[in-house]
């Protein structure tokens, strides 16, 4: 079995943590409780199993995540509201199948349990990120794909947890649309970002009633978002040439900052941004050599 977090999300309670399990990164806060998730793939047969680990202040330990027999499961992101209120999201499918359903699982500090999750796509449902302001107000985002075979048009997917159930919330599209990250500020303020084939970088904003498409920075795609308020939002992404960039929303407009990476081989990518205090952000990602497949981490501290 190939071990390690092939895709990773992290969530914690208080301080600063940057976690990596390969090409996907997450930056967050930590003291004595932190969680990271991903998946492992069996060397024989290729079965995938969701994995969750917990940091207790001195060491990481693997948690027992149930998996129904004959299924593949993968975690892509995690949000911890407390040590006994943790959500992980991803997807699941019958072993070897390409028909994937959305997956949400909750950890109450003792056991993980699966929650009923809308999966409107008739072929694939991919949940990429989760965030929230409380255990009764959480958001998960991603994208869906419908049959017939040959269809390549993805639709945005936004799910909301109200403390009792996950429900799908209507969300705009921008051609074939992928949502990659979400940041919640309050019950009336949340942001989701990704890519749309019509106009490139795609930004949605929640106003307490509906999700609406809003102005996006002049970039090709967006991969991560972090927000302190409706006038202080940071995103990671890439320009039309694939070069990494950061952008900041100040309430009236976006400012884009190209990011230069010296040394290494291959095109770098920024995948995640996190705010760690009132004036500091961390943006993290990777640089992968297209010839050897070897990757290395990149991280930037932004003051402002």
Summarize the structure.
This protein is mainly beta.
Structure, explained:
With 304 residues, this protein is mostly beta strands. It has strands at 9-12, 17-20, 25-28, 34-41, 48-55, 60-62, 71-82, 85-94, 101-107, 112-115, 124-134, 137-145, 154-161, 166-168, 177-186, 189-196, 200-206, 211-214, 221-229, 232-238, 244-249, 254-258, 268-277, 280-288, 295-303. The strands form seven sheets. The chain has a four-stranded antiparallel beta sheet with strand order 1-4-5-6, with no helix packed on it. Strands 7-8-9-10 form a four-stranded antiparallel beta sheet, with no helix packed on it. It has a four-stranded antiparallel beta sheet with strand order 11-12-13-14, with no helix packed on it. The protein is globular and about 50 Å long. Mean pLDDT is 88; it is low at 1-8 and 18-30.
Computed over alpha carbons, the radius of gyration is 18 Å
Based on secondary structure, the structural category is mainly beta
Largest sheet: 4 strands, antiparallel
Distance between the termini: 43 Å
* Contiguous uncertain segments of 5+ residues: 1-8, 18-30
Helix share bin: under 10%
Overall shape: globular
Strand content: over 45%
Q: What is the number of beta strands? A: 25
Mean pLDDT: 88
> Secondary-structure element order, as H and E?
EEEEEEEEEEEEEEEEEEEEEEEEE
Main sheet: strand order: 1-4-5-6
Number of helices: 0
Outline the secondary-structure elements.
Layout: E1 9-12, E2 17-20, E3 25-28, E4 34-41, E5 48-55, E6 60-62, E7 71-82, E8 85-94, E9 101-107, E10 112-115, E11 124-134, E12 137-145, E13 154-161, E14 166-168, E15 177-186, E16 189-196, E17 200-206, E18 211-214, E19 221-229, E20 232-238, E21 244-249, E22 254-258, E23 268-277, E24 280-288, E25 295-303
Antiparallel strand pairs: 1-4, 2-3, 4-5, 5-6, 7-8, 8-9, 9-10, 11-12, 12-13, 13-14, 15-16, 16-17, 17-18, 19-20, 20-21, 21-22, 23-24, 24-25
């Amino acid at each position: 079995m190939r071990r390690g977090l092939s895709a990773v999300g992290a969530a914690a309670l208080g301080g600063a943590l940057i976690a990596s399990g390969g090409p996907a990164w997450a930056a967050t806060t930590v003291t004595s409780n932190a969680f990271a998730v991903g998946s492992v793939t069996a060397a024989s047969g290729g079965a995938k199993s969701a994995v969750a680990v917990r940091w207790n202040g001195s060491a990481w330990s693997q948690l027992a995540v149930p998996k129904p027999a004959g299924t593949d499961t993968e975690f892509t992101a995690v949000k911890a509201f407390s040590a006994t209120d943790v959500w992980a999201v991803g997807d699941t499918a019958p072993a070897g199948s390409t028909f994937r359903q959305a997956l949400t699982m909750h950890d109450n500090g003792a056991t993980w349990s699966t929650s009923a999750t809308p999966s409107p796509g008739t072929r694939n449902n991919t949940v990429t990120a989760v965030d929230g302001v409380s255990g009764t107000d959480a958001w998960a985002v991603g994208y869906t794909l419908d049959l017939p075979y040959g269809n390549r048009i993805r639709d945005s997917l936004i799910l909301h947890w109200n403390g009792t159930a996950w429900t799908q919330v209507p969300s705009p599209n921008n051609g074939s649309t992928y949502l990659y990250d979400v940041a919640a500020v309050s019950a009336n303020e949340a942001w989701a970002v990704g890519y749309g084939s019509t106009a490139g970088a795609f930004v949605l904003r929640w106003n307490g009633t509906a999700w609406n498409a809003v102005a996006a920075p002049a970039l090709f795609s967006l991969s991560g978002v972090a927000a302190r308020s409706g006038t202080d939002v940071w995103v990671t992404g890439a320009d039309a040439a694939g070069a990494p960039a950061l952008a900041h929303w100040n309430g009236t407009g976006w400012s884009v900052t190209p990011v230069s990476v010296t040394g290494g081989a291959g095109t770098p990518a920024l995948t995640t941004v996190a705010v760690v205090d009132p004036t500091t952000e961390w943006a993290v990602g990777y640089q992968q050599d297209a010839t050897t497949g070897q990757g290395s981490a990149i991280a930037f501290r932004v003051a402002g």
